[in-house]
Amino acid sequence: MEESSSITIREFIDSLSSEMSTPSGGSACGVVGALAGALVMMSAAFTLGREKFASVQEEVAEIRERAQRLRDMSLELATADEEAFGRVMEARKLPRDTPEQEHLRRSSLDATLREATDIPLQIAEAAGGISLLARRVAEIGNPSLRADALTGAYLADSVTKSCAEQVKENLRWIKDEDYRRAAESRLRRLTRPIHEHQQASADKQSEATADELR
């Protein structure tokens, strides 16, 4: 299939809807991560060059630049995930009629699965950065674009959670215990901010409800 970054949205969705093994969840995460980054960039663009937001111009310009890097990275990783999963599928097709063939197949499968696990971890890493940028530009940027910035944050958080599921599924089949422990540790670090955001949001809601009851 063509690279995810060089086809139309309709073509990508049609491919995702088909019975082909690629693209799949990881590629979808990369594309959604890129969309989240684009929303951050848009929110920043409507803040830059406006006198009303003169005090935050430098920071918002940096936010936009970083969001673009993460957006582009996410899109590249969407394609990389598709290619990596294709290699996993090829490894699964290797013969295993003899002990030697079984060993070769197992080694190939472990190697390709590690690669296919590293990529959603990288997508989640990029999404975590996008989420932070989105929340910051929602706080200091043009309030007319606040909803767009927060949409970017929520999309990015969903990418991280979805990548976590992709990683967990792959880890079920990887025999390398050291790699599994390292990946699980990295996953906990990447998902921790989401739980913190959710808790902070719940606390704010509880305070608002308490104020209404007073």
What features would you describe in this structure?
It is a single chain. This protein has 214 residues and is an all-alpha fold. It has a single domain (4-213), classed as Four Helix Bundle (Hemerythrin (Met), subunit A), CATH 1.20.120. Helices cover 79% and strands 0% of the residues. It contains 6 helices and no strands. It has helices at residues 9-16, 25-45, 57-92, 99-140, 146-171, 177-213. It is elongated, with a radius of gyration of 20 Å. The protein starts with 8 loop residues before the first helix and ends with a helix. The relative contact order is 0.14. The model has no long low-confidence stretch (mean pLDDT 92).
Strand content: under 5%
Q: Provide the number of structural domains.
A: 1
Number of helices, counting only DSSP H or I runs of 4 residues or more = 6
Gap between N and C termini, in Å? 60 Å
Average pLDDT, all residues: 92
Write the CATH fold name.
Four Helix Bundle (Hemerythrin (Met), subunit A)
Oligomer: single chain
- Structural class category: mainly alpha
Question: CATH superfamily, please?
Answer: Formiminotetrahydrofolate cyclodeaminase monomer, up-and-down helical bundle
Name of the top-level CATH class? Mainly Alpha
